[in-house]
Structure formats: C-alpha cells, structure tokens
UniProtKB/TrEMBL annotation:
Pfam families xrefs: PAP2
Main EC class the enzyme belongs to: hydrolase
Keywords: Hydrolase, Membrane, Transmembrane, Transmembrane helix
Gene3D superfamilies for the chain: Phosphatidic acid phosphatase type 2/haloperoxidase
Annotated GO MF terms: undecaprenyl-diphosphatase activity
UniProt source species: Anoxybacillus andreesenii
Keyword flag Methyltransferase: no
Domain of life: Bacteria
Protein name according to UniProt: Undecaprenyl-diphosphatase
SMART domains: acidPPc
SUPFAM superfamilies assigned to the protein according to its UniProt record, in alphabetical order: Acid phosphatase/Vanadium-dependent haloperoxidase
CDD domains associated with the record: PAP2_BcrC_like (cd03385)
Length: 202
C-alpha cells in the first residue's frame, strides 16, 4: 500500500474526529445519496424527452462498461477496506471485509454524473461535483482509500466518454428508444382516452 495513499486517507478520514458534527451528514452522503441519483435518473426518463432518455441509456451503459473494467481491475489489484487494514480508523459504515478496489459507489455516481454533464454541460457540472463529494465521503466514513476512489473515477470517466461518443450514433440506440416509445404510447393510450372521456362526462 502506497504511503501517500495512506497519508491522504488519514488526512481526510481524521476530519471525522476533528469535526464529528459532520459525521452524520457524511454517513448520509456515503450511504443514501445514491437514492437521489436514482430519483433524478427516473425523473429525467419520465420527462419523455428523447435527449434525456438517450442520456439515461448512456448513463446505464456507461455504468455497465465501468463495472466490467472494475472487475478486471479488482483481479489485478487487491486491498481490503481501510478499517480492516489500519488502526484507529474513523469507521462510520459497517460492511463485510472484501476487496475495496476500486470503489463501486464512486463508479455508480461518476458513470451517471459524468454522462449527465456531457449531455447537459453548463449546470450539469454540479452532478460531477456531487459525485466528487460522494467519493470523498467514502474516504471520510472509512470504507475506501483515495486510490480506490480515484481509480473508480478514472474508470467511470473513460466509460462515460466512450459511451457518449459512440452509443447515440448507433442505429440500434435509436431503434431501442423508438420501440420503447411505441410500446409506452400503446400502453398509455387507453389511460389517456379514459381520462378524456371522464372529463367530457363531467
């Protein structure tokens, strides 16, 4: 384990001892902010805008590609969580001991958040900032080294850019959206007609 990696981990993780009042917020960010990402992804999809739906598809595919690369990286390098290897760790999250390289939470967030930024630009950078905060929180709560988070970020950046530049240009991608939207329209038509007939009766 690199001494720099350990020192940087200590610098961030020890903040939880110096500023314990922030521990509950960091615990929430590290464990539950993924729910916000899930709701945002569903929200983008439910706008029914084709650009947003393509963005969500790219985010999902980017995550799949990143996870495949991460599994390969995990076979090449292995380290347990900091709380299992180091003493006096500010551990706020309890989980089974396994390979923490690279960080799965970081991969989830960066895969989607970088994709959101690539499609939205401008204010979309806030998604990348959010993903960065999640990465830092995973170090703060004691379950990942900085190298775990950095590797997850690099893998996700590569997969998100790769998918963004290639997937939307494929005819298959457009066909997937077209087929889905036709099925959605067919499913919603009886419901819409029912609402219209009720409004006329009133």
């Amino acid at each position: 384990m690199s001494e720099v990696n350990i020192q940087l981990f200590r610098a961030i993780n020890d903040l939880g001892k110096v500023y314990p009042q922030y521990n509950p917020a960091m615990f929430f960010i590290a464990e539950y902010l993924v729910l916000l990402l899930a709701l945002a992804t569903i929200g983008y999809w439910c706008t029914r805008k084709q650009s947003n739906r393509m963005m969500v598809l790219c985010g999902g595919l980017s995550f799949v590609v990143a996870e495949i690369i991460a599994k390969i990286a995990g076979m090449i390098h292995f380290n347990q969580q900091p709380f299992a290897e180091l003493s006096n760790v500010n551990q706020l999250v309890f989980k089974p001991i396994d390979n923490s390289f690279p960080s799965d939470h970081t991969i989830i967030f960066f895969s989607f958040c970088i994709t959101f930024w690539l499609f939205k630009r401008g204010w979309g950078v806030l998604w990348v900032l959010l993903a960065s905060i999640v990465g830092i929180s995973r170090i703060w709560v004691g379950v990942h080294y900085p190298a775990d988070v950095f590797a997850g970020m690099i893998i996700s950046l590569f997969s998100a850019v790769l998918v963004y530049y290639f997937f939307p240009r494929l005819k298959m991608a457009q066909k997937i959206l077209t087929i889905y939207e036709k099925g959605e329209q067919a499913a919603l038509t009886p419901f819409i007609k029912g609402k219209k007939s009720k409004s006329k009766d009133m």
